[in-house]
């Protein structure tokens, strides 16, 4: 029996496993092909990462157990600790700390990414984040605990470090969330962004809309400044300014899973592995990469996939398909994703929808908000635990979502 090992149950990992099993099924199934698909992750769940800026974010996950069962995917609980590319094996550490080894014929690395935490004094001890579900739960618990503090400016102020996509979304959500918890209108939300513009990676297209929305929500931003230290009562910026706050949220950038460093290959500044058009490591025939761990060209214009849900889903479909196609001696499909759009949540103000890599604004306000809610609550969720429906959705030629 030959094995396709998928590392991770995020968007890329889930769709990789389904797409690989889809092609195996089309060619006679596990018994006829002698190929099985194994997925390794701590839990058989998909965390809905694009929703972690919302309240109750610790509940934003969906069980994949039944979906894997009906599609014939084998799940192994644990974390991949090491990958031996020479021997084609991975070491797994389960929840009890017991180590085991899995051999693979093809590996799909879809281990995702995590928040960068630079070596800034106090960041680990005093800054919150919304990168993982447990971190969201810790933040929510902290915000509700603020009611036990006497009213004062530091209690009523939230500082968000990073004015990118995530920082803007949590900042837009925070004023109403804080007012509801504290039962006070006297709240302050401040974004600190080291670039000279809010939403620097989003470009000038949606910026006027973002500025209008943040102003309407009462969110302040401090541009051209970096945070140089964090303590239990606030932050100090590179300008020497101090902002008193009991609630500092760090959103400053992402980096690929540390497992990428165990794979021989070229990496970008975020640790993502360069892959060819079939999402394979150029120097390793048996390893494919998908999602936030992959640096993949999306079109003939030279654009690269971003660390985003919309790219991870399609990358997963192609990586899984090509891993199975390789074992079945079938022609692989070159990955492409020419359509690109964004949908940025702006809290009670609404949202902004852009189209294309130049991010031309298409919708704003409540109309854009309806699209964002449909994406967050339906489009990005897994297919039903139905074999036919799941395999149809896993087709790499399926258009998939173009917004995230």
TrEMBL record:
<feature type="signal peptide">
    <location>
        <begin position="1"/>
        <end position="20"/>
    </location>
</feature>
<dbReference type="InterPro" id="IPR051169">
    <property type="entry name" value="NADH-Q_oxidoreductase"/>
</dbReference>
<keyword id="KW-0285">Flavoprotein</keyword>
<protein>
    <recommendedName>
        <fullName>FAD/NAD(P)-binding domain-containing protein</fullName>
    </recommendedName>
</protein>
<comment type="similarity">
    <text>Belongs to the NADH dehydrogenase family.</text>
</comment>
<dbReference type="GO" id="GO:0003955">
    <property type="term" value="F:NAD(P)H dehydrogenase (quinone) activity"/>
</dbReference>
<keyword id="KW-0732">Signal</keyword>
<dbReference type="InterPro" id="IPR036188">
    <property type="entry name" value="FAD/NAD-bd_sf"/>
</dbReference>
<keyword id="KW-0560">Oxidoreductase</keyword>
<keyword id="KW-0274">FAD</keyword>
<dbReference type="InterPro" id="IPR023753">
    <property type="entry name" value="FAD/NAD-binding_dom"/>
</dbReference>
<dbReference type="GO" id="GO:0019646">
    <property type="term" value="P:aerobic electron transport chain"/>
</dbReference>
<feature type="domain" description="FAD/NAD(P)-binding">
    <location>
        <begin position="3"/>
        <end position="314"/>
    </location>
</feature>
<dbReference type="Pfam" id="PF07992">
    <property type="entry name" value="Pyr_redox_2"/>
</dbReference>
């Amino acid at each position: 029996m030959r094995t396709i090992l998928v590392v991770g149950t995020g968007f890329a990992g889930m769709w990789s496993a389904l797409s690989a099993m889809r092609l195996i099924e089309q060619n006679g199934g596990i018994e006829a092909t002698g190929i099985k698909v194994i997925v390794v992750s701590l839990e058989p769940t998909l965390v809905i990462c694009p929703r972690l800026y919302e309240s109750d974010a610790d509940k934003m996950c969906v069980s994949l157990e039944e979906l894997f069962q009906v599609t014939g995917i084998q799940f192994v609980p644990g974390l991949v600790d090491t990958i031996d590319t020479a021997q084609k094996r991975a070491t797994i550490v389960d929840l009890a700390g017991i180590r085991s080894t899995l051999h693979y014929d093809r590996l799909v690395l879809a281990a995702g990414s995590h928040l960068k935490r630079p070596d800034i004094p106090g960041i680990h001890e005093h800054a919150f984040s919304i990168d993982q579900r447990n971190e969201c739960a810790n933040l929510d618990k902290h915000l509700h605990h603020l009611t036990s503090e006497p009213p004062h400016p530091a209690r009523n102020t939230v500082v968000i470090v990073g004015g990118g996509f995530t920082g803007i979304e949590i900042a837009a959500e925070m004023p109403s969330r804080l007012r509801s918890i504290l039962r006070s209108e006297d709240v302050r939300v401040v974004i600190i962004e080291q670039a000279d513009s809010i939403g620097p990676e989003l470009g000038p297209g949606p910026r006027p809309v973002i500025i209008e929305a943040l102003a309407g929500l009462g969110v302040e931003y401090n541009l051209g400044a970096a945070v140089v230290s964090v303590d239990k009562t606030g932050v100090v910026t590179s300008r020497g300014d101090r902002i008193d706050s009991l609630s500092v949220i760090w959103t400053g950038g992402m980096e690929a899973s540390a497992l990428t460093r165990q794979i021989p290959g070229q990496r970008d500044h975020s640790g993502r592995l360069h892959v060819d058009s079939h999402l394979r490591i150029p120097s390793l025939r048996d390893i494919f990469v998908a999602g936030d761990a992959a640096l993949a060209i999306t079109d003939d214009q030279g654009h690269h996939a971003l660390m985003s849900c919309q790219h991870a889903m399609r990358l997963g479909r192609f990586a899984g398909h090509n891993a199975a196609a390789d074992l079945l001696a079938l022609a692989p499909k070159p990955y492409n994703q020419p359509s690109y759009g964004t949908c940025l949540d702006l809290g009670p103000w609404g949202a902004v929808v852009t189209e294309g890599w130049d991010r031309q604004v298409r919708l704003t306000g409540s109309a854009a908000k309806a699209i964002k809610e449909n994406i967050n609550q339906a489009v990005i969720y897994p297919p039903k635990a139905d074999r036919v429906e799941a395999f149809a959705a896993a087709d790499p030629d399926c258009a998939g979502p173009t917004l995230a």
